[in-house]
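Q: what does this look like with zinc ion bound?
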Amino acid sequence: MQKQIQRQKHHHQYSQSNVLFRLVASILICCIAAAILGLKAGNLSHQLKQTEGQLALLTLETEKLKGENDALQKKYNETQKAEKAQPAAKQSEAGKAAQKVAYLTFDDGPSPYTETLLNILKEHDVRATFFVVGNNVVKYQGVVQKAYENGNAVGIHCYNHAYSSIYASQTAFFRDYNNMKELLTSLLGSSPTLCRFPGGTSNTVSEHYGGAHFMQNILPQVTQMGMTPFDWNVDSKDAKPSPASVQAVVRNVVNQARKYHHPVILCHDTKKNTISAIPFIITELKNLGYSFDVLSQNAPACRQNPA
Ligand SMILES: [Zn+2]
């Protein structure tokens, strides 16, 4: 009996120490696990920080790419827009060349008929170009100013129309020319840029008075002065000694002008029949699809002598 009690006591002691051992072991395991978890957590935190950094870098990279993409898109849109606009510009240039524009030009004036002509042009909403003569400008200054104020172009023909005088020498020519330039500049407030030589750029009368190659010698000098010389491709033939009838002037102009997209029509506002022919010429050419404009440095060139 006593032996049994003692065995039980030993067993109890053994159980107690066993429980203690288990407790200590459990605590140890917990500590180790905590240490491992702590290490892992430390690692995870480090990794998280690294990932956050990478994410920030990626965000920056994405924003940079987005910016580049926006810039490229903008450039692409602009290119598309320019490509779309280009054919329109080409078309408008082609359209401009295809447009039929008539240039009425009047030499040798002003005259007693010029004011009537200005009224006719205004009534028809047409502007023309006047290559005036200095001696006549002095007589009809108000008419020249009115022509200019109405939107017509005024260019140099010559001061003194006598061929023997103007084409006597280069010195004589440029003296006449500069006198004319000064006269128009003071009268109109702006320097003329257009001119038409008496007889045109291919005249031979200048060689008769001033020697061989007279026009070839003066032409480059005139263009260097910033002047644009214009001839004509349609002659109204109104300058003949025997006056051309109104019908003849209309017929001469319309029959030749219809052959050109840009007819430059030679008339003289010193001829009464020409003034009477102008309303018919305007109506006929408008019916044929022509508009009217003044000559300018931008107008298509019209030169018989290209020198
Ligand atoms: Zn003339």
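Residues 107-108, 157, 161, 198 surround zinc ion (CB under 6 Å). The two ends are 153 Å apart (CA to CA).
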